[in-house]
Amino acid sequence: MGEHVVVLGTGYAGTSALQHLESLRDDIHITWVGDRDYHLVLHEAHRAIRDPDVEDKIKIPVEDIKSAETDFVRGHVVDIDSDDRLVELANGRTIDYDYALVAIGSQTAYHGVPGLELHAHKLKSLDDALSIHEEITSGARYAGTDDPLQVVIGGAGLTGVQIAGEIAELRDDEDLPVDIHVVGARDRILSGQDTTLQQSVEEQLREQDVELHMNTRITRAESDAVELDDGSEMAANVLIWAGGITGRDVMDSTNLETERNRVKTDATFQTSDQRVFALGDAALVEDGADQIPPTAQAAWQAAEVAANNISWTIDGEPLETWTYTDKGTLVSIGEAAVANVPTGPVDTFGSYPAKFLKKFVAARWIADVSSWREAIGSWSSL
Q: What is the pTM of this model?
C-alpha cells in the first residue's frame, strides 16, 4: 500500500473529506481518528433538548460511513508532531503518517468570564443536549407558576436562538413552569445576518415568550445567577453558554502555525507544513481579505477541495484554490423555521417551504454520508 493519510475528526469536515479521499484513490492507506465512533449531525443536536429520542436519528456510526479498507481508531488527539509526523492520543498510542488532515473541530470559548466554564452547560455533543434536557425537566419539578425555573442562554447567535426555541417547545409540550432568557452582547440577535431574518426570528422568539436582553454581557457566573455588565444580577437556575468557539487546546502546542488555537491555512487548506492540511473549525482559512466562517456549510463545501489537494500533493501536482460561497441561512425555532437563501428568501415562519428546506438540507447531508434510507428514517426528527 502507498502513502499513509491520517484524517483527524469525525465532524462535518473530517467525515466528508474522508469519503472524498476514499473515492479518489485506492493506492493509499487511510486511518480515520475520532473522539467518538459516530458522526453527529451537530446542527440538529439542539433537537435532543426537547426530545431525547432523536438521539439515534442524528448520529451515524463510522462503520456506516467509511469503506472497509479504511482503519478507524477511537481516541482523543493530544499532540500533532509535524516534524516527526506523529499523532499522539490520550491513551498513549501514537500514529505515524505521511500526510494528515486536521479536522478536530473546536471547543467552547468562555472568554475568561469567571465561573462560566464551571457553571454553564454548552452544546457541543449529544450528551450536552441530554444534560440540558434533564436539568430543565428535573428542576421544573421543584418550581411553580409563582416561582418558575429561570433558564438563561448566553449568546444570541444561531446556536443560542435555536436552543431557546427547543426549550420553549419543551416547556409548552410538558407544561413546565420555565422562564427563558437570551442574553446577547450585540444590539440584534444573529449578528451579521440579514435584518429581515433577524426581525423574523426576534418576533418568533417573543411569541414563544422568550425574553431578549440585548447589548448585554455576562461578566460572572454563579451556581444560580449571573452578573451582567451593568452590575445587575439575573437569576439563572439553568445556565447555557453559546457565546462562541475557539480552537482546541491541542493546537496550542503543535509546531504548525496557529492563531487562537486554530491552524492557519490559505485557500488550498495546506498549512505551514506541506504534508499537513486543516479544515473546518480547526482551521483559520484565509480567503483573500476574508476569513472563512467556521460553519457546517463551509466545511461541507470545502471538503472535496481539501481531499483533492492532498491527492495532488502526493502526486506533486499544483493545488486547487477554494472560494467560499454563502448559500444562505436556515434557522429552526422549535417547530417553526425560516430560510434566507440567495435564490430567494423564504421568510415565513411555519411555512411549508421553509420547514421543508431546513429538513431537506439535514437529510441531504445524512444521505451523502450514509444513505437515503437513513435520511428518510431521520426525517421526522430533523
A: 0.91
